[in-house]
Write a structure and sequence with these properties.
The protein has 439 residues and is an alpha+beta fold. It contains 11 helices and 12 strands. Helix 1 runs antiparallel to helix 10 and helix 2 crosses helix 3. The longest helix has 28 residues. The two termini are 74 Å apart.
């Protein structure tokens, strides 16, 4: 009975510890929090040259016409997406910030990251926080010369990210290993992109897959094109759909083998009138199987893009790593390039404990303490140091034994009568006196 009590106590403590760990480590009230990407908005980069050529402008204007055919609109959407994608590659200075929410329940994941570019150098960071914490990781990549590329995918120990960060860089991690060096082709195999790490998306846009619900509009006052780009996922050409999703499929299969079928991929993006992408949001939904298990993958991704160096620097200076620098080092940080060099030179640190590890350690300590206490009590009872407790246990034991016997129909034994009862004579006959006393 005492062992059962100790086991129940340990189980109860485990439940309390695990519940507390989950509650306090990953408390996310999405109804109350402010979305990280709602905090900033880039301004029109009018200092940059237009990226549109005459043929591209002609197709876009044809799609904007009130009499435009469905095919003309699809052509305009296809064209402006490609120009916006090109803007990511040719712009000298830019900052992209990302927030992706995918899955639900135990498969829920949250991504917050960025790409900072300056000349031939760029730095990429994307921490992923998963509800099942062992799936959390942080991806880090950079290049300083477009010739050698460095990449590392850090496990959950790269940092505890179960909290909202509303200022740049929208995620925290500890670099626990040095990124490995790759050539461009080697790096591409690890990253599953189409042409460039900076591209908008690794889904290959194909004109025949642009759905007829897609649209384009233009606001001259705000200098913005607004585009709805939807993929026709019901298209009967399965080979075309596989070509469109090939890189995304390969990236997914790098973690688990599952053949995915997309049921939805809708996007809305804004492009400045000189061709530079301003923002991008897309919703996707796919279904698949891994063995006999059904899987689904809803995801929503948000991206914002900045080109003005003053705006970019204002965001970069929110970074706690910058604020921790000595004043003389801060004064040397005069452009995004210095920040890229700082990020690339991040020192290797010790891995942080994640929530489930902390919970396991706490539970282990509590369980050990409980075991020590229980064993100590048992030893003290056996040595007679706790007579009252021993007496209570014996009484309880006899009571349990009586109940057990009663259930089995065993009557309690009557105490034996003492044959030498002091109230009864030993012999009914009187004792005769000795007739022959000793002489």
């Amino acid at each position: 009975m005492q062992k059962k009590r100790a086991l129940l106590l340990i189980v109860a403590l485990l439940i309390i510890v695990v519940s507390s760990t989950v509650l306090f480590a990953c408390n996310k009230d999405k109804g109350q929090r402010q979305h990280a990407l709602d905090l900033e908005e880039g301004t029109y980069p009018d200092m940059l040259p237009s990226l549109f050529n005459s043929e591209e402008l002609a197709k876009i204007n044809a799609g904007l016409s009130s009499t435009a055919s469905v095919d003309a609109v699809k052509e305009a959407v296809f064209t402006i997406y490609n120009v916006a994608n090109r803007s990511r590659k040719v712009t000298d200075t830019s900052l992209m910030i990302q927030h992706t929410e995918s899955g639900s329940g135990v498969s829920a994941m949250d991504f917050k990251g960025y790409i900072l570019k300056s000349g031939k150098s760029w730095y990429y960071q994307l921490p992923r926080e998963a509800a099942f914490d062992a799936l959390s990781n942080t991806q880090v990549a950079y290049t300083l010369d477009q010739e050698t590329f460095y990449y590392a995918k850090l496990d959950a120990n790269s940092g505890a990210k179960c909290h909202d960060i509303d200022t740049f860089p929208y995620g925290e991690f500890i670099l626990t290993e040095a990124p490995k060096a790759y050539t461009f082709d080697e790096y591409r195999e690890h990253r599953f992109f189409l042409d460039d790490q900076l591209e908008l998306c690794n889904m290959k846009l194909i004109l025949d897959l642009v759905d007829e619900t897609s649209s384009i509009s233009y606001n001259a006052e705000d200098h913005i094109y607004t585009v709805h780009l939807n993929i026709d996922c019901d298209n009967g050409d399965l080979d075309l759909l596989k070509e469109w999703a090939a890189q995304a499929q390969a990236e997914a299969n790098s973690e688990m083998e599952v053949e995915r079928t997309y049921e939805k991929w809708d996007s809305i993006f804004e492009v400045w009138e000189n061709g530079y992408v301003k923002s991008l949001e897309y919703d996707e939904y796919w279904k698949g199987k891994i063995g006999s298990f059904d899987l689904d993958g809803p995801a929503t991704s948000y991206f914002k893009f900045f080109y003005d160096e003053a705006e970019i620097m204002a965001l970069l200076k929110q970074d706690t790593r910058y604020n921790a620098l000595p004043e003389e080092d801060k004064e040397a940080m005069v452009s995004p390039l210095e920040f890229i060099e700082m990020y690339c030179g991040t020192e290797i640190g010790k891995p942080n404990l994640v929530s489930w590890q902390i919970g396991l350690i706490v539970f282990g300590c509590i369980a050990f303490a409980v075991i020590v206490i229980v064993v100590g009590i048992e030893v003290a009872v056996k040595k007679g140091r706790l007579p009252k407790l021993a007496s209570k246990r014996e009484a309880a034991k006899q009571k349990r034994l009586a109940k057990k016997n009663a259930k089995k129909g065993i009557q309690p034994e009557e105490p034996e009568q003492n044959v030498f009862n002091e109230f009864e004579p030993v012999n009914d006959q009187p004792v005769e006196e000795d007739q022959n006393p000793e002489e």
